[in-house]
Design a protein that fits this description.
single chain; 71 residues; alpha+beta; Structural Genomics Hypothetical 15.5 Kd Protein In mrcA-pckA Intergenic Region, Chain A; five-stranded mixed sheet; two-stranded antiparallel sheet; 7 strands; globular
């Protein structure tokens, strides 16, 4: 499980995908979310604006398992 540190209160799912190197640009988020399954704390979610907070566990199909931490 990889840790992704954020310095703000939350991060949007689309930004998280870029920060975790699942996508290379923010513009790819919409298409990535249409084609891949994302589990956030065990629930499927594909909203790129979904807010992720420290402690959230994110499983990205084909990319890995991550946990959001506060830096």
């Amino acid at each position: 499980m990889k840790e992704i540190a954020i310095s703000t209160e939350y991060i949007a799912l689309g930004q998280f995908l870029k920060l975790s190197d699942c996508i290379s640009t923010g513009g790819q988020a919409k298409f990535f979310l249409q084609e891949n399954v994302i589990h956030i704390n065990g629930d499927v979610d594909n909203r790129r604006g979904r807010k992720l907070y420290a402690g959230d566990k994110v499983e990205v199909e084909g990319c890995g398992v991550f946990v959001v931490t506060k830096s």
